[in-house]
Write a sequence for this structure.
C-alpha cells in the first residue's frame, strides 16, 4: 500500500539545527513517521524536540556541535551509529544568516556563513554517504536550501552564495551517489515564521511587501516542512534525486 512507503519505522535520522524552528519541526515529523532521531544543536538545547519525540515512543539523542568548523562531523555520525546501530537519513538544516550591504560586508561574517551553511553541510553529506556505503544500505540526504537558491535577494551575499551552492551541490552529489542507492535532494523553504526572518516580519515596509507577494497569503510555519521531509526521507521518493523542492506558498511561481 502506498501509505506504507511513507513510514520510517526502524530508521535513524540525524537532523542538524534541531534545537529551534525548522529543524525542530522536521525532527518531530520524522519521529511521527517512525524514525529515531539524533538531534544536533549548538546554542539551543532541543528540549521540545526531545520531549515530543520521546512522547511518541521514539528514541532521541542530543548531540552538541558547533558546525562553524568541520571538526564535529565525525562525532555526529559516530554518535548515531554507536547509540542506534546505523544511520539512514541526514537532514542538513543548520545554518546562519548575517545581514549587511555588500559594500560593507566583513570577511569574518562571510566565512562564518559559508562555513556553516555550505562547507560543514558538504562534509556531513560525505560522512553520511560513507556510512551508508559501509552499511550497504543506501540512504537519504535532505539539504535545506532556500528561495535564495533561485533568487538573489539583498543584504545577504554569503547566504545567497551558500544557498545557491547547496542547490548545486545537491545535484552533484545525487549524480555521484545515485548508483549507491543514495538519494540526495533539498527543500527550499519560502518565507517562514522563524527567528531568522523575525527582522523582516518586524520591518514595517518589507514585512507587508513580502506577505502581499505570497500567493498563500501567509508566512509559512515550521510544520509546513514535515510532509516534504518525510516524503524525501522515505521509500516514496526512491526515484527522486537531485531535486530541490520549494515549500514556499507559491512564492517562486509569482
Amino acid at each position: 500500500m502506498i501509505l506504507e512507503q511513507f513510514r520510517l519505522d526502524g530508521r535513524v535520522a540525524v537532523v542538524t539545527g534541531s534545537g529551534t524552528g525548522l529543524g525542530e519541526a522536521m525532527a518531530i515529523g520524522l519521529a511521527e513517521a517512525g524514525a529515531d532521531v539524533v538531534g544536533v544543536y549548538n546554542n539551543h538545547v532541543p528540549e521540545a524536540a526531545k520531549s515530543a519525540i520521546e512522547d511518541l515512543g521514539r528514541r532521541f539523542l542530543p548531540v552538541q556541535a558547533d558546525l562553524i568548523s568541520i571538526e564535529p562531523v565525525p562525532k555526529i555520525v559516530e554518535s548515531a551509529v554507536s547509540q542506534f546501530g546505523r544511520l539512514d537519513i541526514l537532514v542538513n538544516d543548520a545554518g546562519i544568516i548575517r545581514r549587511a550591504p555588500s559594500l560593507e560586508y566583513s570577511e569574518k561574517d562571510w566565512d562564518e556563513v559559508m562555513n556553516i551553511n555550505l562547507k560543514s553541510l558538504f562534509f556531513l553529506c560525505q560522512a553520511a554517504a560513507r556510512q551508508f556505503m559501509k552499511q550497504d544500505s543506501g540512504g537519504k540526504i535532505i539539504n535545506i536550501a532556500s528561495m535564495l537558491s533561485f533568487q538573489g535577494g539583498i543584504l545577504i551575499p554569503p547566504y545567497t552564495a551558500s544557498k545557491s551552492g547547496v542547490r548545486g551541490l545537491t545535484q552533484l552529489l545525487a549524480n555521484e551517489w545515485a548508483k549507491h542507492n543514495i538519494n540526495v535532494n533539498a527543500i527550499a523553504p519560502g518565507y517562514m515564521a522563524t527567528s531568522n526572518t523575525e527582522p523582516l516580519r518586524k520591518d514595517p515596509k518589507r514585512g507587508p511587501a513580502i506577505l502581499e507577494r505570497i500567493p498563500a497569503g501567509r508566512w509559512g510555519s515550521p510544520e509546513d516542512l514535515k510532509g516534504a521531509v518525510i516524503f524525501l526521507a522515505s521509500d516514496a521518493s526512491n526515484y527522486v534525486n537531485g531535486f530541490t523542492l520549494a515549500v514556499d506558498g507559491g512564492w517562486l511561481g509569482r
